[in-house]
Design a protein that fits this description.
The structure is a homodimer. The first copy, chain A, folds into 2 domains: about 1-240, Acetylglutamate kinase-like (Carbamate kinase, 3-Layer(aba) Sandwich), CATH 3.40.1160; about 255-400, VC0802-like (2-Layer Sandwich), CATH 3.30.2130.10. Chain A is about 35% helix and about 25% strand. Chain A has 12 helices and 18 strands. The longest helix of chain A has 25 residues, at about 60-85. The interface of A and B includes residues 83 and 93 of A.
């Protein structure tokens, strides 16, 4: 068994936590596994370093910020190696560049273009543990680069692929993916397994435990991820290719996101290219549009409604009011008290009537649906934020998610 | 003019200090110089990192400690580059490995085996400023190594040699080398210039401003060092090859060191190999022996006296008491209230009677000389510690050091 174990910031957040983490690595070795480790910076360290950069300049060079924050993981990797040595393990820290992580693209959001992992396999076969800094690599010119948000998970998956690991264990401060948020529905159940596609949908809905990039990479190379807690060594949730088991249930879980605002531009003269004339300036302003609905044209006029992150609400309204004039539309309306609730599951592919059942459940609770969007394995509705808890609990119950 | 500027820990000890340091670099560029910079870790940072390593383990692997503490300079290099960018300077941070510092020897005390500086020359010729981490490099296997004490000065000199600089400016928190300690003799005068050999003697006597290794390297490649203050931009002391000017004065300065203890092993049977039988075990115990005097043999017995750092006094006494028995010597005596006072100067080569004059001056003050040792450009006496100030002032005056 060859494993890559990845430990996030809270799992290495202090000397004590690093000790616990070393025990996990040691235990895997004692079970006969070959192990490589990927670490994040100690929690808070990246922010401390960014604080220094911003104390220096309002607009620090991204190359230098990368070189600066990359030291955070280097510190963790060295400290964990020291602790592993104490336990009798031959561990060696490697920076991204030393480990063989090649990147392309711009600073602060580089992409991994390849990992030269052969020397690491050699170490692992000798019973040694490479402790690799996540989140970073070097570009073709030898500059230190960082991968941006979620980079460490992506580093771990990329390393697992490069060293031909059987699984990539991602240790974090939660013990898996739940059928829904247990703070809303105490009967929420931890899932033993979930498909890559479902994980992507959960991630895009704010399940922050695994970043989309890492799941996409794992899916492309069929690398199983075991998402688990470093605080409690029970089985977590295994993310892998869809299997027959997964097809049984109609849906796998219910997700929600409160970080939503809805805007409508009404009475736009309906002519080719109106979507482009709205969404091009919105995209140029770096605003992420999510659900989009365009009404049926009436009297040659149409309405366009879409959701944006709540933090972009004010900027979006301002932009649309300008567009409203230039496009000769009637008016702009907005609402920042909406939320999204989604049901997710690969079972939708084989079960019919799942969306209909969702709408019936919500209707029965007198919850008005404002917008609907569907994908192959997800149905999302936009509704008033105050209904989130009610909707989540009703759906969780109606789809029998409390029982495996 | 091509310059390497080196800034120590106090010169980059805070965001504010880094701003001041950036101004110094900027000013040199505006004067038309090509500049590369070498930086230390922010003062306190190396100790913070070592503290983490030792919180982890009493005996951390030196490889990992090197990887850990190397981040200290990386942080400074990035922050200084960010500040230089703000001033409109194209600056790029480089880790030791990125800059091309190759090392050999063991971790924590690696030696620089070479610097591949051509890409840095290219940057400098383009008006860009490489900001290089001092104190570190990579070994032949790509491991991060550090150079040990005084490493940053040595990095700066090595870089200056590699990029064929005209001078290596070493900025620190003192403004130069004085004829003696101004706290003892207020008439002490800052020297404009000093030879490498003299600097080495001053350094070995505790003038901590420039480490011996860096001076030796500069001497070997004839690289002038300009030692100066980053807090006060006046001329400092230039360290270079001996020139005709330097030959004028009998001596250049008076140095002292209180960190001395004296031990004597008395009545040793005088036979070949006794020095070896004493100093081999002393060296094995990692005790640095300094001044050594062996008395003329009398009745087939001899006495051996030597000085050690005061911190090694107790260990030395213990060791000698064991040796005393095994060597059938008479007794061991010790005194840890002694000090060393030296006069230093290349002028001694051309002036005769310098040592005699020193002894006369001390005799006139009724100061008893306990031990004497001489080199080509230095005379050192060991005396009771209480006479240090008196001896320093008397010698400073007698050799006319207050006037240039």
């Amino acid at each position: 068994m060859r494993i890559v174990q990845k430990f996030g910031g809270t799992s290495v957040g202090s000397v004590e936590r690093i000790r616990e983490t070393a025990k996990i690595v040691h235990a895997a070795l004692k079970q006969g596994s070959q192990v490589a480790v990927v670490v994040s910076a100690m929690s808070g360290e990246t922010n401390r370093l960014l604080g220094l950069a911003h104390a220096m300049s309002d607009n620090p060079s991204l190359r230098e910020v990368d070189a600066l924050v990359a030291t955070g993981e280097q510190v963790t990797a060295a400290l964990l190696s020291i602790e592993l040595n104490k336990l009798g393990v031959s561990a060696y820290s490697f920076s991204g560049g030393q480990a063989g992580f090649k990147t392309e693209g711009s600073h602060a959001k580089a992409r991994i273009s390849g990992v030269e992992g052969d020397h690491l396999i050699q170490h692992m076969q000798n019973g040694e543990v490479p402790v690799v800094t996540g989140f970073q690599g070097v570009d073709a010119s030898g500059n230190i680069t960082t991968l941006g948000r979620g980079g460490s998970d992506t580093s771990a998956v990329a390393l697992a692929i490069a060293v031909k690991a059987n699984v990539c264990d991602i240790y974090t401060d939660v013990d898996g993916i739940y059928t829904t948020d247990p703070r809303i529905e105490p009967k929420a159940r931890k899932m033993n397994s979930i498909s890559y596609e479902e994980m992507l949908e959960f991630a895009s809905l704010g399940a922050k435990v695994l970043q989309t990039r890492s799941v996409e990479l794992a899916m492309r190379y069929d690398m199983p991820i075991h998402l688990r807690s470093s605080f409690d060594l029970i089985e977590g949730t295994r993310v892998s290719r869809e299997d027959s088991d997964m097809e049984r249930a109609e849906i796998s879980g219910v997700a929600y996101n409160r970080d939503e605002a809805k805007v409508t531009i009404k009475g736009i003269p309906d002519q080719p290219g109106i979507a482009a004339s709205v969404f091009c300036p919105v995209a140029a302003a770096d605003i992420n549009v999510d659900v989009i609905v365009q009404n049926i044209s009436e009297d040659g006029l149409t309405d366009l409604t879409f959701t944006v992150p709540r933090s972009d609400y004010a900027a979006t309204l301002k932009l649309l009011n300008q567009l409203c004039i230039s496009m000769k539309a009637r008016e702009v309306r907005g609402d920042d008290t909406v939320a999204k609730v989604s049901i997710i599951g690969v079972g939708m592919r084989s079960h019919t009537g799942v969306a209909k059942k969702m709408f019936e459940v919500l209707a029965k609770e007198n919850i008005n649906i404002q917008m609907i969007t569907t994908s192959e394995i997800k149905v999302t509705v936009v509704l008033e934020e105050k209904y989130v808890e009610l909707a989540v609990r009703a759906l969780h119950h109606a789809f029998n998610l409390e029982t495996a």
